[in-house]
Amino acid sequence: MVQSDASGSERVRRWLQEAGFAAEILHFDASARTAAEAARAIGCSVAQIAKSLIFNVFQSRNHILVIASGANRVNESRVAAAIGEPIAKADAAFVRERTGYAIGGVAPIAHAVAPRHVLIDADLTKLNPIWTAAGHPHSVFRVSFGELLRLTAGAVMQIT
Predict the structure, then answer these.
(1) Is residue 148 within 8 Å of 108, Cβ to Cβ?
(2) How many angstroms separate the Cα of 51 from the Cα of each of 20, 60, 103, 130?
(3) What is the pLDDT along the chain (160 residues), one digit of tens a residue?
(4) 62: CATH
(5) Residue 2: inside a domain, yes or no?
(6) Rounded CA separation 61/58 (Å)
(7) 1 domain residue, yes or no
(8) Cα 31 from Cα 112, distance rounded (Å)
(9) How many CA atoms lie within 13 A of 53 on its CB side?
(10) Furthest-apart CA atoms within the chain: distance in Å
(11) Fewest CB atoms within 10 Å of the CB: 17, 37, 109, 138?
């Protein structure tokens, strides 16, 4: 594991501390950019990786955050119907502008601009623990589903 702390991970650490959540942020030498890479580095199943995906909501000029199990693909039509607007997966520049993080390191919290909606994959309710990016492609932190729900104030839905 890497000993140094990236600025995105430090922002996540401070945000968690202010929220009263004592989480240890793990830093790896190898990338944890994809769900498979993160699962290998941690030693957990791919399903236990909660990937934070940003979608562009063109009509309202906003973005939403979908927190999905690493084993699942997001059904964009279902998500669009849930929020009542069409969506599209955001490009790297949009993700960095809105969240302050690079793709592969997007934490579900402490975004530069708060997402209009936060939707959490219902499949994550069955998993414990859950691991999520901590603001850098080499960093993660551990949460329970209840903690993730509390930290993000998200709405649970079937996203597949």
Answers:
(1) yes
(2) 23, 24, 10, 10
(3) 333 346 899 999 999 999 999 889 999 888 788 899 999 999 999 999 999 999 999 888 899 999 999 999 999 999 999 999 999 999 999 999 999 999 999 999 999 999 999 999 999 999 999 999 999 999 999 999 999 999 999 999 999 9
(4) 3.90.960.10
(5) no
(6) 5
(7) no
(8) 23
(9) 25
(10) 44
(11) 17
Strands 62-69 and 117-121: parallel
Residue of 149, 62, 131, 47 whose CA lies nearest to 98: 62
Element (H, E) at 149: helix 145-152
Asked if 33 and 102 touch (Cβ cutoff 8 Å), the reply is: no
* DSSP letter for each residue of 53-78: EEEEETTTTEEEEEEEETT----HHH
**Token pair for residue 72?**
């699942």
**Would you say residue 11 lies in a domain?**
yes
CA distance 134 to 109: 9
- Cα 113–153–127 angle (5° rounding)? 115
What is the C-alpha to C-alpha distance for residues 86 and 82, in angstroms, rounded to an integer?
A: 10
41's tokens: 């580095």
- Total domains in the chain come to 1
Q: Which domain holds residue 148?
A: 7-157
R_g of the chain computed on alpha carbons: 14
pTM for the model: 0.93
